[in-house]
Design goal:
The chain has about 475 residues and is of the alpha/beta class. It has two domains: about 270 residues, 3-Layer(aba) Sandwich (Aldehyde Dehydrogenase, Chain A, domain 1), CATH 3.40.605; about 190 residues, Aldehyde Dehydrogenase, Chain A, domain 2, CATH 3.40.309.10. It is built from 17 helices and 21 strands. The strands form five sheets. The chain has a seven-stranded mixed β-sheet with strand order 15-16-17-14-13-18-19, with helices on both faces. The chain has a six-stranded mixed β-sheet with strand order 10-9-8-11-12-20, sandwiched between helices. β11, α10 and β12 form a beta-alpha-beta unit. α2 packs antiparallel against α6. The longest helix is centred in the N-terminal third of the chain and has 17 residues. It binds nicotinamide-adenine-dinucleotide. Nicotinamide-adenine-dinucleotide (NAD) binds next to α9 and α10.
Length: about 475
């Protein structure tokens, strides 16, 4: 099997960089080079934006919903055929555990593609409002929803195929053209999609552009460019702020999916032992998930026992070679990320948190950017490791006095992405969940992830909602057309 795609897609053509430069794609589990990717220049980005603008302004793409549905279904067929290749790409460049590619990393979202294809035609783009009177004259009003225009999409490396698709698919279904700038750590998760679009669909030239580059600044330039109407960004809160700044000069719409520091509250009427393996899933994909529950809040009445049970769960968490289908945790995506996580662990120790297990690089895995599943207890809720997103397999355990105290600690965060509550009394657990300021929350192990679930954050975890009808509407403008009504 040919792995990956070294070319970008710019204005309908699969191309090398205009400078001829390439950048390396490294496997984080082996530290070996798996290949290269065209290193797009600022000129390449300029051409991509020009192509997207032209395609939006001069083709019927935004007006022909039936054609968009046909093209999205072609893309769906192409994705199904390319599933095995995309799976190997994800394992090789993102260090994604093989098991996860059968779910949220890949297959779940390929299966979601018909949802967007159907929504392209099922959505009511024009609705009649109730008539009004203006200066004694009856008025008819039509509310029209139409594509925003050129969408700049900027994505991170942690769930790269999913995150690229969950921007591309609704933006295209709604009739926009797109310039996708993926993260440099996982270029092929985007360039393969570009190749499928170019070779296996009738999507017109310029409607989709994929611009992989080692230059992060391309994201800033894309956010600033006056030809771009909307920026949809997933990544860290720090970069999200910069995207908003860049977009402000042209006052373009921004749609942000940012970081998280979600809390899992275990109420005092449920045994931690019963749910410890579920709570250890914070190590899934090496903790590189925005919605993972990285703070665990335990009632003082079961605090020490709970820590012991979590220690057992962490020490049994399956980690190692992402190719091995029994593993749920692979390496951090890069040396840089491994160093960041290890620096946070040192910070936790320096801040006086109690290290329960892990805390370093596993000695049995000499190659690859691994970090041991790590637990800190007695974490001060205001300390750095309780407040900042570590993006590694690191759990912070914090004790609480009563339900009100747990809610206060959970909400003591600049983030508000996700969370969890577990308790034997479901009504009590639900009432605690209602008071947590986050965009999603699971109760007693409930899972919310689905293409029709609006996902996003309160506070500094983001602006807007991805997926579902609300996610589709992020890519639409609103126009009201008024005309005199018959008396
Ligand atoms: P990052 O913010 O460093 O980079 C994300 C993307 O932004 C990359 O493509 C990068 O090249 C680009 N970029 C860098 N500087 C830029 C700038 N000044 N202007 C515009 N674009 C710029 O994030 P990351 O390290 O790639 O990913 C991890 C982060 O993503 C975590 O914070 C995680 O919580 C977040 N994330 C959020 C969600 C969500 O849905 N809320 C999902 C996945 C990941």
């Amino acid at each position: 099997m040919n792995l990956g795609e070294p070319r970008n897609l710019i204005d309908g053509k699969l191309v090398n960089s205009s400078s001829g430069a390439v950048f390396e794609n490294i496997n984080p589990a082996t530290e070996e080079l798996i290949g290269v990717c065209a290193d797009a220049t600022r000129d390449d980005l300029d051409q991509a934006i020009a192509g997207a603008r032209r395609a939006f302004d001069t083709t019927d793409w935004s007006l022909d919903a039936a054609f968009r549905k046909k093209c999205l279904l072609q893309f769906y067929e192409a994705l199904k055929e390319a599933t095995d290749e995309l799976r190997e790409v994800l394992i090789a460049e993102a260090g994604a555990p093989r098991l996860l590619t059968h779910g949220v990393q890949l297959v779940t979202y390929i299966e979601a593609m018909p949802y967007w294809a159907n929504l392209a035609v099922d959505f009511d783009y024009e609705t009649q409002m109730t008539d009004i009177e203006f200066m004694g004259q009856p008025q008819r009003r039509l509310m029209r929803r139409e594509a925003v225009g050129v969408v700049g999409a900027i994505t991170p490396w942690n769930f790269p195929v999913y995150l690229n698709l969950c921007k591309l698919a609704p933006a295209l279904a709604a009739g926009n053209s797109v310039v996708l700038k993926p993260a440099p750590d996982t270029p092929w998760s985007a360039t393969v999609l570009g190749r499928l679009i170019a070779e296996k669909t009738d999507i017109p030239a310029g409607v989709v552009n994929v611009v992989a580059s080692s230059d992060h600044q391309l994201g800033a330039i894309l956010s600033e460019d006056p030809r771009v109407d909307l920026v949809t960004f997933t990544g860290s809160t720090a970069t999200g702020r910069r995207v908003m700044q860049s977009a402000s000069s042209t006052l373009k719409k921004v749609f942000l999916e940012l970081g998280g520091k979600s809390a899992s509250i275990v109420l005092d009427d449920i045994e931690v032992e019963k749910i410890a393996p579920m709570l250890a899933t914070v190590c899934t994909h090496a903790g590189q998930g925005c919605a993972l529950q990285t703070r665990l809040l335990l009632a003082r009445s079961q605090y020490e026992k709970g820590i012991e049970q979590m220690k057992v769960a962490f020490e049994n968490f399956p980690y190692g070679d992402p190719n091995d289908p029994s593993k749920l945790q692979g390496p951090q995506v890069s040396k840089l990320q491994q160093e960041r996580v290890l620096a946070y662990i040192e910070k936790g120790k320096a801040e006086g948190a109690r290290l329960i297990t892990g805390g370093g690089v596993p000695s049995h895995l000499p190659k690859g950017y691994y970090v041991e599943p790590t637990i800190f207890a007695d974490v001060d809720p205001d300390s750095t490791i309780a407040q900042e997103e570590i993006f590694g397999p690191v759990l912070c355990i914090i004790p609480y006095d009563d339900d009100d105290d747990a809610i206060r600690i959970a909400n003591n965060s600049l983030y508000g992405l996700s969370g969890a509550v577990s308790g034997r009394d479901e009504a009590r657990a639900l009432s605690v969940a209602r008071r947590i300021r986050t965009g999603t929350i699971g109760v007693n192990g409930g899972q919310w992830f689905s293409v029709d679930t609006p996902f996003g954050g309160y506070k500094q975890s983001g602006l807007g909602r991805e997926n579902g009808r609300l996610g589709f509407e992020e890519y639409l403008e609103t126009k009201v057309m008024a005309l005199p009504a018959a008396r």
